[in-house]
């Protein structure tokens, strides 16, 4: 009966019918349990030192990775390589793209193509308000305008609301956008410039055409807020 | 034990067979119930998987049936696979191994049988709930909350039975398989309850909920299915070939490194999401550190097998166990590397991940459960497997189906990811490019299902009483078949009745 010890194959042993099985009833009932190998045991081979060193190398890699990519260890540190001092700021956006986005609000009256609605809303394409004095334009958009105006040779008499709830960057972007779309071409506005106009017109209500012209005629304050002579600011001061 | 008086009766029988007979006899009903249920759910999971797979290349397939929309069938596929097949098969394995290794009779058998029935009713309730559209929408925890008590209470019975056996154990030594089994019964309840609390019960909100979800989703595979699979491999390989496990020290290192690192890995599923960077970084490191347990366990199993590979030709148990063990190494290597940010830039949100999951679940976990069944069922039922051909079909379907699934999905995933990173390629072109691979996934699913059906036939036969008994195990190269049983029954009639 040595061949019944385990599941090791015995090629000579053909399947046997019940009649061939030894008659011992205990054997019949417990065949499978008896031919088994012993319950498994543990061997005691030592772990190679080189393998333990490899494991340590893996752990050290883990330490390096955590040290390099754990960001600031803070709940809002989303960038894995952010250094401790650097504040996370959104990357500067192209003013034309941001402007187009903001223009989504203006579209309702001035239309997608910037041509306005005849008799009701003035066009922006070719408009002397848009292409003219930047200071006047920013003041108009920030504080709103009501009354009889002439744009591109046509009369309009309606109401433009004040957009002072928009921040300087958005106003600068949308003005840059309308000054450079639909065939318009004029220099861009910086958000510092818009901030200066916002400060200058603080507390002023909605413009009438006359008061807006009067405002445009007065020179800007001698010391604007944004003084540094960058590429944008000197132009802003000349007008 | 009574071994002393009876051992002498049969010449050449090992002296410790008495306790095995006692253990097997006491655990028979429980284990057979659990495994039969597991195979039923495996079939359901395969069918649900194939339906969802077909829907991906033929979106109109069964499109008019509300209960079988993709979102529901896919959830049913995964939940029946992990709880129905995985949970029930692993629980049966856990109970049988623990009884054998502790050398004690199965305690509370009536409670465990009742628990097994309730557990299966719970899964059925959950599945119907999902099909009716009441899924919670939290991946891996899709079962509606009213199904949870059916699943939690029976598991408490299993935990109690497990600890009872351990504290009454007659063996002096605690074998490595037992470490894993004990650990599973501690880890799994903690995992389920805290994950349910943090997601469906709303203990936390927003990003923390997503972290809890994926912490659980990853750990249910890693701290529930994996340890049970490893415990089975640690038991079966030395048991069948009759040699001790290579090294106790490596077993120790493998167990503790698995226990320490796996728990951290879950957040790598959320790379690129709005999580604090350090949580993902810890997930990546936890995953990469899994190289330590995986290589350790791989060495331990491989060195034990060394010199016994010729047995793979004939032993069904060993063949499935070694397949599972080898694909454990492969799929875990893949999984560890997959966590790296540079790797995820390509493979995240592609078919690659799906390929990886199936290599792990159907290449590693399922074959080890099959190996357990192939080994234990003849002992529990006192009957041999009736068809060697069906075992061969089962094995080759499992191997070919898994490799086809994993190979097709991983290759398609890499290419898909590279194309999606190229903004000049329209998204729909990429979808169209993947269709042949999606079809080969359906084919792989059908192959796997055929294997399951072959196994089911064999399983039904071994639990059905029949006249013919063989003295030897059914080996893979045998020509043993069901027909012989029918013929023998005809012949045997006049003599025995």
Oligomer: heterodimer
SSE pattern of chain B, N- to C-terminal: HHHHHHHHHHHHHHHH
Outline of chain A? elongated
What kind of sheet is the major sheet of chain B?
none
CATH architecture of the largest domain in chain A: Orthogonal Bundle
Question: How would you sum up this structure, described in words?
Answer:
The complex is a heterodimer of chains A (239) and B (497). Chain A is mainly alpha-helical. In chain A, 41% of the residues lie in helices and 6% in strands. Chain A has a two-stranded antiparallel sheet. In chain A, strand 1 and strand 2 (154-160) form a beta hairpin. The longest helix of chain A is centred in the first third of the chain and has 21 residues, at 49-69. Chain A is elongated and about 110 Å long. The model of chain A is unreliable at 1-6, 8-19 and 226-239 (pLDDT under 50). Chain B has one domain (14-462): Cytochrome C Oxidase, Chain A (Up-down Bundle), CATH 1.20.210.10. Chain B has 16 helices and no strands. Chain B has helices at residues 3-7, 17-57, 70-102, 109-131, 148-167, 176-198, 206-241, 248-261, 277-289, 291-305, 316-338, 341-347, 351-381, 388-420, 427-463, 482-496. The longest helix of chain B is centred in the N-terminal third of the chain and has 41 residues, at 17-57.
Secondary structure topology:
The complex is a heterodimer of chains A (239) and B (497).
Chain A (H helix, E strand, L loop, with lengths): L24 H10 L14 H21 L25 H16 L17 H4 L2 H10 L1 E7 L2 E7 L7 H12 L11 H10 L8 H9 L14 H7 L1
Antiparallel strand pairs in A: 1-2
Helix pairs in contact in A: 3-6, 5-7, 5-8, 6-7
Chain B lengths: L2 H5 L9 H41 L12 H33 L6 H23 L16 H20 L8 H23 L7 H36 L6 H14 L15 H13 L1 H15 L10 H23 L2 H7 L3 H31 L6 H33 L6 H37 L18 H15 L1
Helix pairs in contact in B: 2-3, 2-4, 2-13, 2-15, 3-4, 3-5, 3-7, 3-13, 4-5, 5-6, 6-7, 7-10, 7-11, 7-13, 8-10, 10-11, 11-13, 11-14, 13-14, 14-15
